[in-house]
Amino acid sequence: MKFLHLSWRDVQRLAEEVAERVRGSGFRPDVVVAVSRGGFDPARILCDQLSVRRLASLQIEYYTDVNRRRGAPEVVFPLNADVSGLRVLVVDDVSDSGDSLRAARDHVLGRGASEVRVATLHVKPWSRFRPDYYAEEVDAWVVYPWEPRETLISMAGMLRDEGLSPSEVRRRLIEKGFSPELVSRLLQGSSKT
Question: pLDDT digits over 80-94, tens only?
Fold first, then answer.
């Protein structure tokens, strides 16, 4: 499994690229809707870049772990704003299968939005749903700066399940691009590693 580790600067650059594409298309959203959890930070940056003051959210659960999904995406917290008659930009971090984004778009359309477009920082080549706007296509698992701990702990568990020793788990995580400091801090003293 390949990993792409991003910094906050990378995220800012990618969001600015997405904003440029939105502006270039002539679409002017009245409200931005963040798909929780990964869409919060990109959505806020896009609000700034597009001069949109209204930011709403909804939460969909689909992934249960790194590269593991449930059967279908589920809206666990519905849209928290009235979007009737408004132009909406739905924002998430990545379109992997695209199923969550399709569910989010359909949910917002079902709430009466006049137009819904979707934006992500990344899209995977195998995604069944292509967002209207995105910055880059990638075929790696993206580790965003808001989730290194979560991803590292998940990967450590998978490696332990493969029977790797604590030192092998540490070595493999570092080989996958996780910083030695983060690996040491998070796995230090863990009886499972």
Answer: 999 999 999 999 999
Containing 135, the helix (H) or strand (E) segment is strand 133-137
DSSP string covering 31-99:
EEEEEETTTHHHHHHHHHHHT---EEEEEEEEEEETTEEEEEEEEEE---S--TT-EEEEEEEEESSSH
Residue 158 domain boundaries: 148-187
Same domain, 101 and 168: no
Same domain, 167 and 75: no
In this structure, are 157 and 99 located in the same domain? no
pLDDT, tens digit, for every residue of 39-67? Answer: 999 999 999 999 999 999 999 998 666 65
